């Protein structure tokens, strides 16, 4: 028994892969998540767990740039990014520091830069390129040039915000990515199956509610923890910086500033926050609070001081203490004059999440949908037609290949395993798509058809090489001929992978899906299906 398993382990591996693909395709555990109010049948879009992209399900595609201008190669002259952004914003009339951002160590393209050199961007729609250039000149910071568009970090933040909106809405198959035109412009490409154009625009413009509250020890509370109403809301922040790594040591932070102006007779948000921090024990003359907050139970831990809470749409997503210097500044009443402080975290990823949450789901820059942007909508009926035509094309390709193979060999024992092996390869790819939730597009279907063609080509090479010199009278002879064929197949596979790799990694939209599944199909073929076909052919052709 062990010897038979050892001899046929490649075939058994292929069987295991097919069974795994079956589980991924049909098991309810791998079904796409349903949107609120959506039935499971609609979410899975059929009997399988496959998700369909815009081309095959219908929906809306929006391709638009982020509005803004970026000064590249800016010499920060030893100033912090927050100070640089504040200085430039001061030179722009009617523009708040929330609409100006500075990124140290970046040239504006997201590829990095030298120390002390960075980029400054303005995202206010009212600012022209000429006005921004004049503001940069007036601020005194040297720079190389001004270009249209925003920094790479802002594009990444926008993508994360939009993807979060899509995921929160439960829109299976929705995707967002960054693409670049031939002229070098960057665009955000949003695809949401099953949704109309206006629904997608409303989703992109929707804002959540964000507030800073305080949790403090209260013996009268049921769990010993009481929570204030929102001390600060998103409109109370004058500036929300991007996540930054700490200059010394580990961890990261998000620089923010609170509005310190208010109508006569009212307290400014900065003063209200300062007074509340002192009143509830977050800040005192002796130092700051040491926070130990349990996000699961929404309660203060043992020996915990009061905590600042970041609350998004009513849910506490993070908790903070306060360092001693900031606490003493608040206790003395001087902090409200500037309103600047940092929300510190232990990881850069957490800081990025906090920066996005503080923006309340709003994009860091406006999408120019009505200007340079383009949008298209595919109806659900048209998507169903595309699915039908794709299935017909796939079936036709299989029958065409099968017919040619049978005409070539006229031996079922050679041709039939060849067709079954090629189909198993496509079936495994479908299982992978269902497992990772990759939405099927027309380009992906084209990749499947390409895999069928290249796969059968390789199997024909194996059959021809094995049968070219007459009868196979021993296993040794078969193995020798098979190895010669496999070297040819391996070289062809390597060529295909190298040729397709640029399409996979570059921002080329649907072509990425075509390249990914073509490369994956080649790898499955070389590592699993071709060796399995060799074992099957050896058993059928070797004279015993």
How is this structure best described in words?
There is one protein chain. The protein is an alpha+beta fold. It folds into 3 domains: 2-57 and 379-541, Multidrug efflux transporter AcrB transmembrane domain (Multidrug efflux transporter AcrB transmembrane fold), CATH 1.20.1640; 69-148; 210-351, Gyrase A, domain 2, CATH 3.30.1360. Helix content is 47%, strand content 18%. The strands form 6 sheets. Strands 8, 9, 10, 18 and 19 form a 5-stranded antiparallel beta sheet that branches. The protein has a 4-stranded antiparallel beta sheet with strand order 6-7-1-21. Strands 3-4-2-5 form a 4-stranded antiparallel beta sheet, covered by helices on one side. A hairpin with a 2-residue loop joins β18 and β19 (315-320). The longest helix has 32 residues, at 510-541. The model is unreliable at 35-45 (pLDDT under 50).
Morphology call: elongated
Q: How is the CATH topology of the largest domain named?
A: Multidrug efflux transporter AcrB transmembrane fold
Number of distinct helices: 16
| CATH class category label of the largest domain | Mainly Alpha
Task: List how many beta strands DSSP finds.
Answer: 21
Instruction: Name the CATH homologous superfamily of the largest domain.
Output: Multidrug efflux transporter AcrB transmembrane domain
End-to-end distance: 19 Å
Low-confidence runs of at least 5 consecutive residues: 35-45
Range of helix content: 40-55%
